Amino acid sequence: MSRRRVDSQGSLGPDDEVMPYSDDETDDELDVSSEEEPEETPEPGAPPLPVEAKPSEMGWKVKANDRPYHHLPEFQKKVFLCFKKSRYSGNAIRTYKYNVITFLPLNLYEQFKRVANLYFLALLILQIIPDITTLPWYTTLIPLVVVLGITAIKDLVDDLARHRMDKEINNRKCDVLLEGGFQETKWRNIQVGDVVRMKKNDFIPADILLLSSSNPNSLTYVETAELDGETNLKFKLGLRVTDEKLQNERELVGFNALIECEEPNNRLDKFVGTMMWETERFPLTLDNMLLRGCTIRNTEECHGLVIFAGADTKIMRNSGKTRFKRTKIDELMNYMVYTIFALLILVAAGLAIGHTFWYEEIGSKAWYLYDGKNQDASHRGFLTFWGYIIVLNTMVPISLYVSVEVIRLGQSKFINWDLQMYFSEKDTPAKARTTTLNEQLGQIGYIFSDKTGTLTQNVMEFKKCTIAGRSYGEPTTAEGVVLDRGRPVDWSWNQQADRKFQFMDHSLVACVRSGKDKDANEFFKLLSLCHTVMVEHKDGELVYQAASPDEGALVTAARNFGYVFLSRTQDTITIREMERETTYEMLALLDFNSDRKRMSIILKFPDGRIRLYCKGADTVIYERLSPNSRHKETTQTDLDIFANATLRTLCLSYKDISTEDYEAWSRRHKEAQVSMSDRDAALDHVYEQIESNLMLIGATAIEDKLQDGVPETIAKLAKADIKIWVLTGDKKETAENIGYSCSLLTEDMQIHYGEDINEKLRIRQSTRRNEPSTLRRRKKKPVEPFFTGMGKNALVITGGWLNEILYEKKKKRRRLRLRRLGKRHAPTSPQDGQPQDDWEKEMRQIDFVDMACECEAVICCRVTPKQKGNVVSLVKKYKKAVTLSIGDGANDVNMIKTADIGVGISGQEGMQAVMSSDYAFAQFRYLERLLLVHGRWSYIRMCKFLRFFFFKNFAFTLVHFWYSFFSGYSAQVTYEDWFITLYNLCYSSLPVLLVGLLDQDVNDKMSLKFPKLYLPGQQGTFFNYKNFFISLFHGIFVSLVIFFIPYGAFLQTMGQDGEAPSDYQSLAVVTASSLIFTVNLQISLDTSYWTFVNCFAVLGSIAIYFGIMFDIHSAGIHVIFPSTFTFTGAASNALRQPYLWLTIILTVGISLLPVICIQFLHKSIWPSIGDKIQRNRRKYEIEMEEEEKKKPPAFQRGRGSRRSAYAFSHSRGYADLISSGRSIRHRPTARRGLQDSIRDVPQTVAENI
């Protein structure tokens, strides 16, 4: 039961069983609404004021079969200036960004919002100015066009996929009532107020008010997998008046009701409205609504009225805002680019000042330097500044961004191609739906997971049972011999059996079939009779529709053991007992609810006996057992064993009732049913009277089947220091039980619930209020831990308590209502538990996040989709950690979009989460490989790529800086123009690109074996400002060596042929050749994983350099383009001198030697975890081979107190529906005749246990 506690305000704590109110209103709107409403205090003794919907809540009007009504001026809203459009959305959805007209301008606008692209455009403009340019314009234009073109093509491909998806959905067909008859219409053409017809297995195109269906009383079954990932069916009901009057097309044409309801919102759990038709008003609730995203099941045909369409539907309102996601490395890279810009401006300004002084002192006085321009020194210095901006622009190479995009694309393809993430059962591969977030997968700190359909399969399996003190379910032969490994039972003897059902204990089957064990027969008879399951006959097969998967699993188990539930009417239930069909009269059905935690059925047997069957939680059943009941101790022991195996248990019992006792109880029951005051309490009291002195039969054990590998995945991710939070809409007991099943919760954890959490936070808030105001607002105050003990802690908190703790709007609305009624003053007292200002509310949120992060596990249950997104936002905001959300339903879309990385579980019925996700795969266990292998590799590769890319461009560019000291700071370049153009495109790009694509410090098996390898990514140790400045100083050192060693070698030298090689062009060739050798050999030293491709890239880059250089320096090309290619013969002349080859070797050797020494010392003295694993790789590989041979046993836990999760978590069933008879058209005559014939033949032998 949910515990209730009086808080500091005197109000009761939230109900753990209730999903909290999820609204779209802001605090400002609440304040406005409170001010607008007059304060009305009822007089003493006067009746309470009627509660009516506010006008703001009932501001949506829909007229049936009247499209022009919704385009009246009163329903128009201003779009831009004087342009208006209808406030009612069309039903077409749009997720694409571009169309044919907007693609080019909008895409270019978005690309030029990136500072680097804007910078290179400015450079291009500068290079066109003759007085400033020091390099040809094509050196910038060609790379810029390539980068913009590749990015635009990638964006176009992504947007075309969105166009296809939108087109597929918008072009689905549906029957709409137009011009007096139903016409097949595309979804995009459906409008608010249209009457639509849907058939079995159709998707629901909009949020629709159910009018009528082919089932009795307009009962319609819907599957909500798209919304919440659950595949068990829910039922919806039409109003009685529409069911009776709107069954055929002619009646629907004349339907002209006016619907007034709440505005479009994201509340999946609430709908309030009124239908005015034929001068009467009829209330509307969520039970009358069919929501977009659901699917019609088991209903041949139904009709409905469109209330909300397109963007106004609840599923679209819950999808949250589409956020532009960027990685932490992206943000860091931008800051580093800004740093380089600042360095560039400082260096260019310094060199420009140097040129001003040089020209003043030397340049203006040297007659041979006169260029015919009468410009003073300051003017020349100003032009030189822009000249150096152009010359040194390669410190921020434009190819960096296109290289990053290529690497990310490659990493995405590797994820798509990974066969170990391919789910063959559903033919579902992993899919990277974005190419921009791969390296972020290597930095995850927090995972937020849904439960149903994500951790679990939402499939319940009947695994074990205990009957009359004997336990069944282990692999056993028909004779009762226990086996290590058995084979499933062959159900061929039972024509009605469900072939998918598997059971390993042959002895129980033999026992039931023999008919000798009355206990076993009574056990399965109870399972086949005591339930609220509905049955459908489909193609000769029985199809059960249960209010929960647990119910279905129990009835299916009874069916396979020979007790087949066949049909039910309002007051009978028919089963086949071992080939004999029997009909029982149902006298009363006492349904589950969250307080009772049990259900009972009172039946009249064909022989006239009256018996009550009851099933429920063991704690509830044991309190109501007769002192004469047997097998209590042995059953208790079996329950503990089942609970240790994380199975959901349920106790079964019965009671024989005399006719006199039943008639007396029946009178009290009817009185309670018509009670006008507190009817539920009266009924519960009557139920208690009959559900006593029960006789225990046994207990069932159901497995809430986890997806394969979930416990192992969670344990492995926990070792990688990734915290996992479960955010689910399920009940607290269900979520907690799954927490134990998947090893998220363990026996040594202290679990804290909402009351404890609220009290700890209240104490912390009171302590803070008592501090002096000067200390209170101090930011850097060290945070005291909430849990001072050494043990592990876990939080289990419901959505109601979450709102209570974080001061969400429901509580604010309640305070405002009380304030309006004069019951409470505004919260200004320091003793009041409410926040005094925004700062205090923020501190409360920080306290909650700090407390949660101290825990090993956090489970938030009964939370709305909006709350899921809010929890993720809190951790992102206050912990600055990288977050990942994973889910499978539309209720997970908000948190998937809010998190830094969103993962959708594909291959299920619901695909809404996948469409909003960044990555998609079929099983939760693949998350381990996505993060620990692909994520870690992507992060390491990107970091290594960026470090080396910055280094090689600093080494390349800063040679110009050193050369300027010997060229009068004249912005003359050191290299040939074509070398500058091709350096980043051809000569040094491929090796570093392949490192970014293929490098790995350890293989995938080692990455999974040692999760601690993931920690550097979380801490961001491989790429940060420290690494950036190391690359900068490394580049400065290499540029110094590359310039000054050739410069010193060229001083006062003479070639072998008597010619001096110390000309400018020879120096350019030697420095360029030294640079190419150095950077390509440096990347070879940094490569951890060598392949043929890497080797080819390094040698190929050097070969390409020499091949192109000799071509460019040839006489033939100079003759064709004399002004463009001016280094005629320079390469062949310089490189035939052995002296210059020795200079190149010396330069390369001195550049690389310090790096080799540092790497050797680092790996010897301060080895990383990866270095140690590399060193002992062979030993670990042998260990893994041995582990593969002997697999560890499945996870088991030992907590005897946790069981009966089924009864605790089960929701209210179809009892009211069955008792009312609304689900049954009429009682079949054949069944009635059969029942009468059975009653005519009294059964002489009573069945006693």
Automatic annotation (TrEMBL):
Chief place where the protein resides: membrane
MF GO annotations: ATP binding; ATP hydrolysis activity; flippase activity; magnesium ion binding; phospholipid transporter activity
Reaction catalyzed: ATP + H2O + phospholipidSide 1 = ADP + phosphate + phospholipidSide 2; a 1,2-diacyl-sn-glycero-3-phospho-L-serine(out) + ATP + H2O = a 1,2-diacyl-sn-glycero-3-phospho-L-serine(in) + ADP + phosphate + H(+); a 1,2-diacyl-sn-glycero-3-phosphocholine(out) + ATP + H2O = a 1,2-diacyl-sn-glycero-3-phosphocholine(in) + ADP + phosphate + H(+)
Transmembrane segments: 112-129, 135-157, 335-358, 385-404, 945-966, 978-998, 1028-1052, 1064-1083, 1095-1119, 1139-1161
Cofactor(s) of this protein: Mg(2+)
GO biological process: Golgi organization; phospholipid translocation
InterPro entries for this protein: ATPase_P-typ_cyto_dom_N, ATPase_P-typ_P_site, ATPase_P-typ_TM_dom_sf, ATPase_P-typ_transduc_dom_A_sf, ATPase_P-type_domA, HAD-like_sf, HAD_sf, P-type_ATPase_IV
Residue numbers spanned by region Disordered: 1-54, 819-838, 1184-1204, 1219-1249
Membrane topology type: Multi-pass membrane protein
A GO-annotated cellular component: trans-Golgi network
Record domain P-type ATPase C-terminal: where: 914-1168
Residues bound to ATP: D450, K451, T452, E551, F592, K615, R648, T728, G729, D730, R862, K868, N891, D892
EC number from the UniProt entry: 7.6.2.1
Record has Chaperone as a keyword: no
Location of the active site: D450
Quaternary structure note: Component of a P4-ATPase flippase complex which consists of a catalytic alpha subunit ATP8B1 and an accessory beta subunit TMEM30A. The flippase ATP8B1:TMEM30A complex can form an intermediate phosphoenzyme in vitro. Also interacts with beta subunit TMEM30B.
Full protein name: Phospholipid-transporting ATPase
UniProt source species: Cottoperca gobio
Designated gene of the protein: atp8b1
